[in-house]
Amino acid sequence: MEKEKQTTVEADKEQLEKMIKAIEDLTVRIEEQDKKIQEKDAIIQKLQRMLFRKKSEKARHAEMMANMPTLFDLEYPEESPSSARALQNIQYSRKKRCWNKDDLGDAERTKIVIEASEEEKKCPWCGEEMEKIGEEKVRTRVIIEEPKIRIEEIYTETYVCPSCRQDGEDVLFKTEAPLPVIPHSFASAEAIAHVANERFVKSVPYNRQEKEWKWLGLSISRRTMSNWIMAVSELYLEPVVLKMREHLLKEELCHCDETPIQIFQYAPGRGSRYPKAFLEGFEGFLVTDGYGGYSQIENTKRALCWAHVRRKF
């Protein structure tokens, strides 16, 4: 009997040890799973910040400053009742609503006076003509006039001296017409300016401008408009750009940046040969970001951007 009890106790003890070992294994597994879950939560939060928060260095700087431990224990005084009342007053103060935010600006203004007819000027009692004693402003309205197309046919005149002609000599004089904006083209400066303003200021594509011209009574293809812009760019804008580059290379300081929006010159790639060709002849300080293509430009001193340096910390 005593032997059976001892066997039962040993079996229970062995079973208890197995259960304790299983619990310890499960605890270790749970801790490992919790650690993995925390890591995945951190990755998810980082991805959410990348997708939905403002992508600016200010946000990263604010987060960095918030997580940075302070060197001093700052103790703020308790809020006094007077400051609480002042805060309460500020919270309840509201701005006046501005119902009309439209601004008519300095547009050309015309005064329209509604005049009385000759019949209305007669007094309904005695029939005498009434005298004007004042006027009252009733309202203001905005008038938009559509653009108008006008075709100008330019002629030159030829003159002859009749006295010399009688003597057998034809003395002729012919007036000179102003040169066209684009050689052998009917485009005027006003027409080209209108197309350029619609395309680059108002972002109206050429196909929609083509329809607008047709509504106004003139059929001009989008290809013609595009050719106008390219022609005036080559004839008038490119010399200005070249002159600007000439002045730029003579300066002591030059700021360069790689940006998707082409500000000064377009390059099909980001190789070092493009900045080398553009800055050929420049000998001064070159302020750039960390792009390595600028390091191969000779006779220049690189001054890196302090704003980009912050990204390294």
From TrEMBL:
<feature type="domain" description="Transposase IS66 central">
    <location>
        <begin position="184"/>
        <end position="264"/>
    </location>
</feature>
<dbReference type="InterPro" id="IPR024474">
    <property type="entry name" value="Znf_dom_IS66"/>
</dbReference>
<dbReference type="Pfam" id="PF13005">
    <property type="entry name" value="zf-IS66"/>
</dbReference>
<feature type="domain" description="Transposase IS66 zinc-finger binding">
    <location>
        <begin position="120"/>
        <end position="164"/>
    </location>
</feature>
<dbReference type="InterPro" id="IPR004291">
    <property type="entry name" value="Transposase_IS66_central"/>
</dbReference>
<keyword id="KW-0175">Coiled coil</keyword>
<feature type="coiled-coil region">
    <location>
        <begin position="6"/>
        <end position="50"/>
    </location>
</feature>
<dbReference type="InterPro" id="IPR052344">
    <property type="entry name" value="Transposase-related"/>
</dbReference>
<dbReference type="Pfam" id="PF03050">
    <property type="entry name" value="DDE_Tnp_IS66"/>
</dbReference>
<protein>
    <submittedName>
        <fullName>Uncharacterized protein</fullName>
    </submittedName>
</protein>
